[in-house]
Specification:
This protein is α/β, with parallel strands linked by helices. It is built from 20 helices and 13 strands. Strands 5, 6, 7, 8, 9, 10, 11, 12 and 13 form a 9-stranded mixed sheet that branches.
Length: about 450
């Protein structure tokens, strides 16, 4: 009999192949009927398969007549689930992994492939593959790519931009389960979470951030009340860079984490949060509890608004290469040619967002990407020939946050790259984020 955890993992991985994001599906209602143990195993399998997919495919290809990309997707997905259990989950008996993988293929109406899947799985089990040894400091880039299941072309870019030591730290971090970070909406939220069995630790960067050591925050009353929400510390820091103003625009708001930070710091200000997709705009409205937040469904490149904002955030759609620890599927979806398309849209959104600022207004531009095309190059293109725009030094903004007791990190230089904010996974205990703060001249 097929276990609910493996069945759910298979369905989620198939949806991911169609463009969905695993993290969203793993926190959706589709898993509500699973027991805590089955839900945990489902999550472990899904994220494990996505993190280690290239290694799993290489292993499968060594024992099958065809590599996974030449098999039916349902068959390849089942084999990846089975191979992951055999290579990474020591508590699962080999016979269980083999039998369940065959059952997955039958459930997917690929019964003709069951004998082949059974043979491949038994060969993998008999070979007892060992996990790759820890990386050595002198290892080449291609060996790092193989050992950490990353596309080589991405590592080549990161090597040129950040250096070999950073590549090692980023790739190691990407393959680990990140510690969830929270932002607390009020002073009593921490003690109330502890009463509900959640063990917390202080954040590393942001004063109001907490790290979840144990417990499921999403099952607590505090979370249901909107007094604590899951948000990476670098994401919180980017929202803090927006500062304080009377009228604030958030151009690409969903799902609303940064909008909430902005609203909390500006309780008497009007915050307009725009989101292109109506369904995601409705989600933002549910998650953002502040009263003076107006959520609209609109295109950030042509907002139906007057230019009367003194602060703005353009946290634009991006490749997400700074979030591979939480979204490992991006590694296998992204192509080099995608970056130029993203750049064009990002530059368009940034140029549009700046047009809604009053003289003297400030805008924070941000991405969760490690790629220069989406970050420094976008800022340079939009600012080229604009004498009315000034790029502010992010160190000054970070010092301001320190003085306001919002930022607790002492090493500001590690957070800065030129005039920009830059966090790197593994170098910092958070996602990789980029941010630039620009100001419109007082008189245009």
């Amino acid at each position: 009999m097929l276990s609910p955890s493996r069945s759910a993992a298979f369905d989620i991985l198939m949806r991911v192949e169609q463009g969905a994001f695993a993290d969203e599906l793993l926190h959706s209602e589709r898993l509500n009927d699973l027991s805590p143990a089955d839900r945990a195993l489902c999550t472990q399998i899904v994220m494990g398969v996505l993190r280690w997919r290239s290694q799993l495919d290489e292993l499968i290809a060594s024992w099958s007549k065809a590599p996974p990309h030449r098999l039916d997707l349902e068959v390849a997905t089942a084999l990846r689930i089975g191979a992951y259990q055999l290579t990474h989950l020591e508590r699962i008996p080999a016979h269980a992994a083999v039998d369940q993988t065959v059952e997955l293929v039958k459930r997917a109406r690929r019964r003709f492939a069951a004998p082949m899947v059974n043979a491949v799985m038994r060969k993998i089990a008999a070979s007892k593959p060992a996990p790759p040894p820890p990386m050595e400091e002198e290892e080449s880039l291609d060996r790092i790519a193989a050992a950490t299941a990353h596309p080589l072309w991405l590592l080549e870019r990161w090597l040129a931009e950040y250096g070999l030591a950073a590549v090692r730290q980023i790739t190691r971090y990407d393959q680990e389960i990140p510690v969830p970070a929270l932002r607390l909406a009020d002073a009593a939220a921490e003690s109330d979470l502890q009463k509900e069995g959640i063990e917390l630790a202080p954040g590393a960067l942001v004063a109001r951030a907490r790290r979840v050591i144990s417990g499921d925050v999403t099952k607590t009353g505090v979370f249901a009340e909107g007094r604590a929400y899951v948000q990476d510390e670098a994401s919180q820091l980017v929202a803090l860079l927006v500062g304080r103003g009377a009228r604030i625009l958030d151009c690409c708001a969903a799902p609303g984490g940064k909008t909430s930070v902005i609203a909390e710091r500006n309780p008497s200000s009007l915050v307009v949060a725009a989101e292109l997709h109506p369904a995601r705009a409705r989600l933002t409205r549910r998650l953002v509890r502040a009263r003076k937040v107006c959520v609209i469904a609109a295109n950030a490149e042509a907002l139906p608004l007057m230019p009367n904002f003194d602060r703005a955030l353009a946290d634009v759609p991006c490749s997400g290469t700074g979030t591979l620890a939480r979204n490992p599927e991006i590694k296998w979806r992204l192509r080099p040619e995608d970056l130029s398309d993203l750049h064009r849209r990002q530059a368009s959104i940034l140029g549009s967002a700046l047009s809604y600022l009053v003289p003297g207004g400030r805008l924070a531009y941000s991405t969760c990407s490690l790629e220069r095309e989406e970050n420094e190059d976008v800022v340079a293109e939009v600012m080229a020939g604009r004498t009315d725009l000034r790029l502010l030094d992010c160190r000054d903004q970070l010092r301001r946050l320190q003085a306001e007791a919002e930022l607790i990190c002492d090493d500001l230089d590690s957070l800065a790259r030129g005039n920009f904010l830059r966090t790197l996974p593994g170098v910092h205990p958070c996602d990789g984020f980029f941010a630039a703060v620009m100001q419109v001249a007082s008189s245009r």
